[in-house]
Amino acid sequence: MGTAFRYPDAYELFAQDPTCCFGNPNLKPETSTNFNGSIGRRVIVGTTAIELEAIAFYRQVSDLIVDVDDGSGDTTITANRPDKVRVRGMSLVASGAFTNAVSGSAGYTYTKSQQTTNELAGGYSALAGIPSNQVEASLDIHPRAVPIGATATVNHVGEMFDTVGGFGSVPSGKYTVVDLSGRVFLDSRRRNRINIRLENLFDEEYTTIHARGFPDASGTAFLVNNIGVPRTFHMSYSYSF
Predict the structure, then answer these.
(1) N or C: which end of the chain has fewer CB within 10 A?
(2) Please, are residues 142 and 151 in contact by the beta-carbon 8 Å criterion?
(3) Residue 219's domain is classified under what CATH number?
(4) Higher model confidence: residue 139 or residue 214?
């Protein structure tokens, strides 16, 4: 258990953008009380060793810094929420070495946030930018007999939402991204390595965050979708010593 705090940054304090948002020099720092607990076990099944862990967490935040409508309907101002925000959830994690050449891991996280509905909250029932469910898994192949290796990872992000001035609560999340990577060792001591990576294998189109934009010709705001990385191929060389 512990406590934490976050001071407002310069943008939150002093922003002056008549087309978008304004800062608030009277902001208080955010403060929070945090509790975490976990239990784990190592299970041996034949030659396979699996590590299991369950983690529970709870956080209560006071004076959360948020963007709220300044009354114009077009711009926002930063403010401290008057109520307390509570976030709780749990994670289940498993990892193991199935053989000398194959290992993997998988994890699931569930998160729920609660806050009192009031004028500043805008009626939102959860915190922006936090997915309700998230699944991560990976499989790594690393044979010692041959100079190659490969890794596959899967990341699924469940439903969440963003808060955008003038648009309110905007649905987000609900996407799955698969990445593949490989490595080739060029010498017996494995110091010279070529790395390859295929990011977003299935070219999933998803939004990382929503924002508000304004065209040059008029003042009518529009919703901006910041799109995640499309299918992208990377290659690099590394040397270790």
Answers:
(1) C
(2) no
(3) 2.40.170.20
(4) 139
